[in-house]
Amino acid sequence: MQRFLIAVVALIAVLGAAYTGAWYYVASMARSGLETVVADQSRFGVSASYDNFQRSGFPSSLRIDADNPSVEGPNGIRWEGDAIAVEARNWWRRNVDVHLIGGHSLTIPEDYPLVATTESGRASFHVSWTGDVPSASAVLQNVEVETDQLPAPYNFSDVSTDQLAILGELIDQNTDGIEDLHLQLDATQIGLTSSPFGELGNSIERAGITGMVSGPLPRRRWSADDIVAWRDAGGQVRIDRAHLIWGPVTIEADGDLTLDAALQPRGRINVRVEGYEVLLDMMEERGVLEGRQATMARVGLQMMAGPPNEDGRSVLEAPITIQDRRVQIGPVQIATLPEIEWPGL
Prior knowledge:
- The protein is 21% helix and 48% strand.
- It is α+β, with helices and mostly antiparallel strands and 345 residues long.
- It has a 15-stranded antiparallel beta sheet.
- The N and C termini lie far apart (79 Å).
- The mean pLDDT is 77.
């Protein structure tokens, strides 16, 4: 019996030593791996820096903290923050949480420059054995976006939201590499400093979209050839649910979109709009609908609309079709989309 107990204690000690060694090995590899990534990216004009690298969490988790993280690309896009923590709880399962501590900002100085900031945030993702990230999610608190150079009619200066939630998940569809990318985006209490649509007010109660992008998805940057291959392979965007509550207007939608032979959007979206007459008035005032077209649109939509809801708002349920850049609700054309010019085509 005594020998058995000694053997058990010895086994536990060996396993404990092995586990401790594995934890410290992974922790050291995390730092060396980070340094390798930073060095490799510098060859492509990407600079990254951080201060006060620390590791903690033994024995059940692995946590890495760093102060003043920053990354800047060759095109001037820059992310920086007060502090960041990366934590792998039950680290052998490869589930990782990223905590944005304090203020963080993203600066884009391109054609339409903007600065986005957040007071705090958290992201979670899973890392496969091959190093891929099949799923990720993020929740950002008190996000603000500052820009004053967007094209009309989207030239609002500042946008803020109490919470922005993002979810992405890659789902393998079959063995020839086609995948589905499930996406979900939701924002609440969006404030606009200067709204381009004053009739709707400066506060959006909620906006979001849930859907799927299916087809051969490149793992890195999309090229023109990738876009053509995605279309030719039957790639499509499926909208399971889109919703917007903005002042007197509530919109819910679902449908499918793809690209036609000219690589322009084509598809059908089913919409339910409460307060659609407000949108018609706005389109007339801005010259989107004029003269006879405006009259036909108003009469046609009134014929398709149902009775007012309990709040007295008009309700329209109808399919929107997009083809040859024409946007129609039922038989009524309401807009013509600008042509999308794809880089490299």
